[in-house]
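Ticket #4471: complex job returned nothing on first submit. Input attached below:
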Amino acid sequence: MPTPFIVLDKLDKRYPDHHAVKSIDLAIEAGEFIAIMGPSGCGKSTMLRLIAGLDEPTGGDIRIGGDSMRGVPAFQRNTPMVWQSLALFPFLSVVENVAFPLRMQKVGAAQRRKRALEWLDRLGLATMAERNIAQLSGGQRQRVAIARALVTEPSVLLLDEPLSALDAHLRVRMQTELSRLHRELGITFVYVTHAQSEAFALADRIVIMSEGRIQQVGRPQDVYRAPANAFVAEFMGMNNLVRGEARGGAEGRLEVGSALGTFEVPAEAPRPAGAPADFVIAADRITLAPEADGPGISGTVLGLEFVGSTQTVFIEIAGGAEFRVQKQQHEIEALDLVPGRRVTLSWDPRHAWLLPQAA
Amino acid sequence: MNRTLATRLSRLAQYGLLGALFVFLATPMLVIVVFSFDANRFPTIPWGGFSLEWHRAILADPMIRDAFLNSVLVGLGTAVLATALGFAAAYLDFRYRFRLKLPFILLVAVPPAVPATILGMAMLAFLSRIGLFGRLETVMACHVAIATSFAMAIIRLRLNDLSRDLEPAAWNLGASPLSALIHVVLPFCRPALIASFFLSAAVSFDEFLIAWFVGGVHETLPVRILNLLQGQVNPKINAIGAVVLVISVALVLLAQRFTGVRAGRRPNPDPGE
Amino acid sequence: MTAASVTTRASARWRWFRMPGPRLAGSPKVLPAVLGLPVLLWQAVFFAAPLVFLVIVTFWQVKAFRLEPAFVLDNWTRILFSTTFQRALVHTIAVAGTTTVLALLIAFPAAYTIAFRLNARARDLAVAFLIVPVFSSYMLRIYAWQIVLSPEGIINALAGAVGIGPLPLLGGAVSLQVGLLTLTLPIAMLILVFAMAGIDRTLIEAAENLGCRRARVIAHVILPSLRPAIALTATTSFLLAFGDYISPLFMTGSKPPTLSILIVDTVKSGSQWPRASVIGVSMLVMLALVLGLGQWLARGRAARKEAAR
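Support reply: We reran it on our side without changes. The output follows.
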C-alpha cells in the first residue's frame, strides 16, 4: 500500500464572511502528482495555502510525513509553492531569486550561487542568470519561479494555477516540462488548477472540489467516466445528465423512468422503485441518426461548436432539455447536421453511468 | 472667427497667469541668491558689483559655523529616525489590521498640520518640565515627530505597489517574517526610503520655530537667520540664505528624483478644439 | 508502516523539515509590536503629550514668574474677554479668510492650465517646481520679499528711476497677503493639479462632444468632481495662513498682531505660559472647526442628504 505523505485530517477554514474549506479529509501519497480542481471560490487555493502554512486552519490538522503542522509557521515547513502571480522578487536578479531560499537557510554565498546556477541550467535558463526579472519573457519567468521553488530540494511542490498566465502554446510546453520534472524528482506535486486539460495531462489523481468540500477523488479517466454526483458530471463537461427514478430491473441493470422515456442503465445494486436514479451519458458515446421511428430520442439540432478536431452538436429534445453530442467532422457532413435538422439520439446502455445515491 | 479670437485670448490669459505665478514663486529665491553676490551692504538696485565678501564673512563667523554644524547633525538624525519610524508606521498600516489603527495613523500623520508656533510652545512647556529643554537631541526628536508624517506618506505610497503575494512567497521560501521584512520589503521600498531620508532632512533643515523654542542656546542655521533678521540689516543674511536655499532645494530635488511623483499618466492632454 | 518510521525515512531522504528557527521571530504578535511601539512612544512623548500638557497648563497659575499647578479658569476668562485677543482673533480670521479666497482664485485657473493644457513633460516639470518651495526656506523667501518691497528696495528703486516716489509697499495688508500666498499657493496648486489629473478625461470629452462650451464643462463636469479637492485646498490654505508667524512678523512688523504673534509675545513677556496656552488651544479649536466645515463642504449636498436619511 502506498504511503500517505500529506494527510488532511478534518481540515477546516472559516473566514469571517465565508466557510472556505469544510472539514476535508484527504491523503496524498509520496511522489504522487495530484491535481485539485473546481470552480473559482471552491476552496482549492485556500487548501493549498493551508498546506503551506500561509493561512491558519480553524479546525482539523495537516500532517506532512507524519508530523502535525499545527503551530509550525510557513517558513519552517519547506513546502515551496509556485504562485499564479509567480511572486518573483523584482529587485533581485534571476540567479539571486533562485538562490533566495538558500540564503534564508544561511547557505554560504558561493555554495548557494552554485546550486542556483545548477537549477537554472536544468531549466534551460543558464544564460539568463544575471538578467533582471523584467527582462524575461513569461515562459522564462515561469521557469525561474519553478527553479526557485525546487532549489532547496523539497519533498513536495505546491503549484497554484501556475500556467494560467501563459498562452496556449507555452502552456503545453510547460506541462511537458512539469511532467518531466515530476518524473525525475519523484517528489509530491500538489497542483491547483481550473483547467481540465492540465489536470488530465499531468495528474495521477484529481480531486474535484465545490463549495469547500471534496466531491470526488480518483484517476482522471475514472472521474470522467464515472462521476460521483451531478456536480462532478457537469463540471467535467461533455456529459449529459438525465434525471429520473428507479422503476425496477434485473441483475446488474436498472430501469430508469424519466421525462425523456425509459432507459436501462448498468447498476451494481438494485434500487427500490421510486428512488431517485440520475444517470449521465458522455457526449462522445451518443450515436446520431436521421430521424426515424426506431428506438431513441428525437431532437432538433440547435447549433455546432468547434472543439479542436471535433465538433460539439447542441440538440434540443422535446420538453426543452438540451443534449451535447461530440462528433468528428466527417460524421457531421455525412448526416448533414445543420441547425433545424431533426435527428434521433441513441446509445449503448452499457455506456450510461448511474450516479450513486446521495448519502 | 469671433470664437477663435476669444479662445486665443483665453489661452493667452491662462498661460500668462501661469507664467506670472511661476515668476512670483521664483522671485524670492532668485533675489536671495543673486544679492548674496552683491557688494552693497543693503541689497537693492543698482547692483553694487559682484563680490564674494559676504560668503567669506559667513565662513569666518563661528556662530554661523556652529549653527550650520548643528543643522547638519539635527538634519541627519531626523532623516535617519524619521525614515525608520515612518517605515514602521507605513508597514504596520499596510500589513496589519488592528483596533485603534486610525488613531495610531493620525498620531503620525497630523503633526505637520498643527501650527508650529503652538506646537513649539507646547513642546517647550512639556519637554522643559521633563528636563529635555535646550538640547540638540531634543530639537532632533521634535523634528522627527513632524517629519515622520512625510516619511510614512512616501513609503506607504510605495508599499501600495508591493504585490500582496511577495511577502507570503518569501515566508513560503523559508524567510521568517523578520527576514522577509529585511530581505524583501526593505529592498522593495529602497527608492521611497531614500526619498524620505532626503525629504525628512529638508523638513528639519528648514524648521525654525520649534528649533527656536526648544533649542535654547543651541541654534540651528534657520534659528540663527531668524535671530539675524530680527536684528539690524546684515548683508551676511543673503549669503547664508543662498547656502541654505541651495541645500534645501537640492534635498527636495533628490527626494523627488526617488519618488517619481507624477500628476497622472495620460496621452497628449490637449483635446485640440 | 507506522507514522514514526515514515518521518524518519522522509527526513533522511528529503530533509523536508527545516532546522527549527527562533520561534520568537515567527510569532505573529511580536513583529508588529516591535515596529509599532517605538513609533507610538515617540509620537506620544514628542507630539501628543505636549499638546495635552498645553491644555492642562491653561488651568495653571503663574506665581512670582513660576508656573504652578492649579485649577483656575482665570486664564480663560482673562484671555477670551480681552479686547486684544478678540481683535487679534477677528484680524487673523479675516487675514486667513482673504488668503484662502485669493489662493483658490489664483490657484484654480493656474492648476487648470497645468493639468489640462500642458503636455506630460511640462506638467511633471511644473509639479517639481511647485514641490520645491513647499519644503524649502519659507522664512528666507519672506525675507526676500522684504528686500523687494521695502522703501529702499528693488521695486521702489525701479519706481524711483522713472520718477515715482517711494511707495509704501511694505507693512500693509497687501504685503501680508504676498507673504501668505508665497506660503499657500504652491500647496494649493499641487492639491488641485493632482485632483484634476485624476479626473476621468472621457467625461470631459463626452461633454465637449455633446457641444458643451468650455465654461459649461468646467461648471458641470470639472467643478463637481473637484469638490473634495477644493475643500481640501481651502482648509489647507486657511490652516497655513491662520497659524503663520513669519509673514505677520516680517511683512507687517506684527501690527496689528495675529494670534501667533500674540502667543510668542505672551510667552516672552513675563512667562505668561497659561495665557499663551489659552490662545494656542483656542487656535486649535478654531482650526478643528474649520477642518470640520471643510469635511462637511467636501461631502456635497447630495451626499449629505444621503447621510441624513
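The mean pLDDT of chain B is 88. Closing as resolved unless it happens again.
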